[in-house]
UniProtKB/TrEMBL annotation:
Protein's organism: Acetobacterium tundrae
Gene3D superfamilies xrefs: P-loop containing nucleotide triphosphate hydrolases (3.40.50.300)
Pfam family for this entry, one: PduV-EutP
InterPro entries (UniProt xref): EutP_PduV (IPR012381), P-loop_NTPase (IPR027417)
Name of the protein described by the UniProt record: EutP/PduV family microcompartment system protein
NCBIfam families: EutP (TIGR02528)
Length: 180
């Protein structure tokens, strides 16, 4: 498979997407440093958000075949300036994540990624699996074995283990207890 570097702001879904592409259960993990996983380079969001760290993204992109700019479908603004893809010497794709989130506007994410210069754009939900197959097919090279044989298998909902969910449930429980 082609090697892909994931770039985007904190909590846009880079690590979750990496886990979904591998077919694994999804566990929330905060990416603290640049991680290499088989064919995915997962980067901390702070690298894209901070101009003193962003230079590292340019260096790590040389280790990839594809640069993927991620933006989640609930973003109020784009992190990427117009035509930023032109500075890469690799193909640049866009990935709109969290398309199933409450208040999501995937079309706005697509528009921003087009403006950034992405040559192909995918809409995905790492939790439901929607769009995962299309990314895998894009990365596939002759002779590659994918985690799934069929699109239907790739697009099944994932088991999600997240401390974020627990925190939300605890807050909801606390609110219920205050009312009682």
């Amino acid at each position: 498979m082609k090697k892909m570097i994931l770039i985007g702001r904190s909590e846009c879904g880079k690590t979750t997407l990496r886990q979904a592409l591998k077919g694994k259960e999804i566990h929330y993990e905060k990416t603290q440093y640049v991680n290499h996983y088989d064919v995915v380079i997962d980067t901390p969001g702070e690298y894209a958000e901070n101009n003193t760290l962003s230079h590292a993204l340019a260096l790590y992109s040389y280790e990839a075949d594809i640069v993927a700019l991620l933006i989640n479908a609930t973003e109020p603004y784009s992190l990427y300036p117009p035509c930023v893809a032109a500075v890469a010497n690799r193909p640049v794709i866009g990935i709109v994540t969290q398309i199933d989130a409450e208040g999501a506007n995937p079309d706005q994410g697509v528009e921003w990624l087009e403006l950034a210069g992405c040559e192909k754009i995918f809409k995905v939900s790492s939790y439901t699996g929607e769009g995962i197959w299309e990314i895998l097919e894009y990365l596939r090279e002759d002779g590659d074995m994918l985690p799934w044989d069929k699109k239907e298998d790739a697009e099944k909902p994932r088991v999600v283990f997240s401390t974020k969910s627990v925190t939300i449930l605890e807050e909801a429980f606390d609110d219920i207890m205050k009312v009682s």
